[in-house]
């Protein structure tokens, strides 16, 4: 179940309903162990934007961004772990059961394939959103 923003006028109800649907979508993706009721305030900006946008369009944009990695599951898994561990290569490598230098090598290959720096906050934000979308939700 989702709860939208409170509104003072009936004219604003449509936006509140849209927000409630986005919050409900977040609750559904959380699964049986997650909170059964989510509030609009629970959605961060990216989650809200992704859940209110055209799902097919969002999926297509995420796939296009990660297309250079699509043929290499190891690189995609490495990127996902790196993002999931807050850009900490040592913890991500441990989660992948590889040496940190091996992960750093993979990250360099990812940068080369994507043509961008994994040190750029904007790039990290886009990749985090794209990986989350491909993994089944706005946030990985």
Automatic annotation (TrEMBL):
Protein name: PucR family transcriptional regulator
Matching Pfam families: HTH_30 (PF13556)
Organism of this sequence: Baekduia soli
Gene3D superfamilies per record: PucR C-terminal helix-turn-helix domain
The organism's taxonomic lineage, starting at the top: Bacteria, Bacillati, Actinomycetota, Thermoleophilia, Solirubrobacterales
Ranges for domain PucR C-terminal helix-turn-helix: 75-131
PANTHER family: CARBOHYDRATE DIACID REGULATOR, DNA-BINDING TRANSCRIPTIONAL ACTIVATOR ADER
Highest taxon above the source species: Bacteria
